């Protein structure tokens, strides 16, 4: 039985995340478990998720941050530990919490991409 779709394709926040995420070399979007994921062979971002042990956050971005950034992100109330992915070092950014800082979103996606992408794709980054 397939997962139900848990996003609105016309969501303007998703549109902006797509624009940024799909600009990375060879990145693609695949719906998995009812939500958009962004991949470069491996998943580097999820749109939407849930707080570990808590509420759904349909307008959130889940990424794997640079390990040196984790303490600062943990102190920021916009960030949360996502269900399932949190133990693997992923964090969630609640895009509904305030006006998203799109430069920050781009930096988070960039860091996540660099951590999971094959080395040849990281070398192809032009930004």
UniProtKB/TrEMBL annotation:
InterPro entries for the chain: YjbR-like_sf, YjbR/MT2646/Rv2570-like
Protein name: YjbR protein
High-level lineage: Bacteria, Bacillati, Actinomycetota, Actinomycetes, Mycobacteriales
